[in-house]
Amino acid sequence: MTEEERVKAAPTKAPFRKTGYISPEARFQDKFRRPRWSFQIIFAVRMPVYITSLNSGSNGNCYYIGNDREAILVDAGLSCRETEKRMRRLGLSFEKVRAIFVSHEHDDHIKGIPIIAKKYQLPVYITAGTRQQSSFPIEDHLVASFQAYEPIPIGDLSVTAFPKFHDAADPHSFIISDGPTIIGVFTDIGAPCEHLVRHFRKCHAAFLEANYDEDMLHKGSYPYHLKRRISGGQGHLSNRQALELFLAHRPPFMSHLFLAHLSQNNNDPDLVQDLFNGQSGGIRIVLASRYEETAVYTIQGAPGDEPLPWVETSPDLPEIRKAPPARPRKRQEADPRQLSLF
């Protein structure tokens, strides 16, 4: 055997010697095989938030806010069967719903809760004052309480409540956040207050009440005392009040505004849509119907989104009231559920 044949027949030397030396050839070959060390880089990617109004009006209110893993309902004023049917049409499932948050005790916000909570064993977050005034039965182990301004984690979602002006025992509005994305649920509000304005300025999307047209209410058939209760600061927001709040305090990153809780007798959906569309500034205006669910909308915030700077008073801004106290009020002389008729 020649010298050249002996070299070719010799076994290939291992690329790693005992000294730790790696030949250039071995280093080159190893580059295309398996790396000696592996690095796993994990990026913190925030999921989008999906929102829809399943119904909005005096015949029932229910709002769905969720991500890819979990969701909550704010109020459940539809029957369990109707809620399930509308969610199925949208491709949504109760398997992701982790809790129900109750804004106040009026029937159009709570009548579906007993069956839904029992069937799916969902915790119902409700204040002591609201539960005391509520007539619906619910198992004690499903009752959970919340306090104003204290965030409640539901998976990656965080839910924070704050008090509002409304003719109920202990009414609250909510903001729901997932990372930088913030959604507001602001309905059944007698008058804009400081807390409403501060939270509205943070929202990428919001459900905002536009309950009645002032002229239609004034000329309508309701008795005077009922008109006063609707418009007297403890009832509902008018189209004008909602528009003033929107124009004065919408943040630059807001993408969607849902106009909610429109009165059947004292408002006109086409009137409201035209009123806001003409001044939307590129924000998507969605009417939350009292007859059907809206589409599911995808909302995505960004870490750099900052709310507008707070301005205490200005002649260019609509009048806002001091925030209501974060405590239950005294029992109403009249049945607090009667405003659900509007």
How would you describe the overall organization of this protein?
With 342 residues, the protein is an alpha/beta fold. The protein has one domain (50-330, 334-338): 4-Layer Sandwich (Metallo-beta-lactamase, Chain A), CATH 3.60.15.10. Helix content is 25%, strand content 19%. The chain is built from 11 helices and 14 strands. The protein has helices spanning 3-9, 24-31, 80-89, 107-110, 113-120, 128-133, 194-200, 214-219, 224-231, 239-249, 269-277; strands at residues 49-55, 62-66, 71-74, 97-101, 124-125, 143-144, 152-154, 157-163, 172-178, 181-186, 205-209, 256-260, 284-287, 297-299. Strands 6-5-4-3-2-1-14 form a 7-stranded mixed beta sheet, with helices on one face. A 7-stranded mixed beta sheet has the order 7-8-9-10-11-12-13, with helices on one face. A hairpin with a 2-residue loop joins strand 7 and strand 8 (157-163). The longest helix is centred in the last third of the chain and has 11 residues, at 239-249. It starts with a helix and ends in a 43-residue tail after the last strand. Mean pLDDT is 84; it is low at 13-20, 31-44, 313-317 and 328-342.
CATH fold description: Metallo-beta-lactamase, Chain A
* Major β-sheet profile: 7 strands, mixed
Helix content: 10-25%
Q: Let me know the number of strands.
A: 14
Query: What is the annotated CATH architecture?
Result: 4-Layer Sandwich
Global mean pLDDT: 84
Q: What's the topology here?
A:
Blueprint: H1 3-9, H2 24-31, E1 49-55, E2 62-66, E3 71-74, H3 80-89, E4 97-101, H4 107-110, H5 113-120, E5 124-125, H6 128-133, E6 143-144, E7 152-154, E8 157-163, E9 172-178, E10 181-186, H7 194-200, E11 205-209, H8 214-219, H9 224-231, H10 239-249, E12 256-260, H11 269-277, E13 284-287, E14 297-299
Parallel strand pairs: 3-4, 4-5, 5-6, 10-11, 11-12, 12-13
Antiparallel strand pairs: 1-2, 1-14, 2-3, 7-8, 8-9, 9-10
